[in-house]
């Protein structure tokens, strides 16, 4: 539920930022920019940026909570050690910036006793045992990685 609210805030904010930026520039050029409007635009930008930072942490927490259930089966679009991925997902962390980037994404589906979790993984460009994790159920999680896992 909380992720859905954050995702909606991110989607609304990210789509309106460009329009509001253009309106703000036009209003500034014609000297019709009010402080109230400028504060409103700044608030929307601030909320959208904050949501983009908060979302991955909340998504990682939700994923860890959902993985406390027994995983019945997994399906991967690429050959990968499924049990190692499940183990690593239980310890998913923030994707620290190194001089690497994610390569092509592929689907990874987990069936638990209660639900199906669909994720996308992308191998790291430098470390072949590291994968970037995306949560495409939410727009924010599809556009931005929620974390990184390291296979053992």
Automatic annotation (TrEMBL):
The chain crosses the membrane at residues 12-30, 37-55. Keywords: Membrane, Transmembrane, Transmembrane helix. It comes from the Bacteria. The keyword Transmembrane helix applies. The lineage of its organism: Bacteria, Pseudomonadati, Pseudomonadota, Gammaproteobacteria, Vibrionales. It comes from Photobacterium alginatilyticum. This is DUF3290 domain-containing protein.
């Amino acid at each position: 539920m909380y992720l859905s609210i954050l995702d909606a805030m991110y989607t609304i904010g990210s789509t309106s930022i460009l329009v509001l930026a253009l309106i703000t520039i036009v209003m500034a050029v014609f000297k019709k920019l009010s402080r109230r409007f400028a504060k409103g635009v700044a608030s929307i930008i601030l909320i959208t940026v904050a949501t983009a930072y908060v979302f991955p942490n909340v998504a990682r927490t939700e994923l860890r909570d959902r993985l406390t259930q027994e995983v019945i089966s997994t399906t991967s679009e690429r050959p990968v050690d499924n049990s190692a991925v499940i183990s690593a997902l239980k310890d998913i962390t923030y994707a620290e910036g190194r001089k690497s980037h994610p390569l092509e994404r592929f689907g990874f589906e987990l069936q638990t006793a209660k639900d199906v979790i669909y994720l996308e993984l992308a191998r790291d460009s430098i470390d072949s045992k590291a994968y970037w994790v995306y949560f495409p159920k939410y727009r924010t999680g599809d556009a931005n990685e929620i974390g990184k896992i390291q296979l053992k």
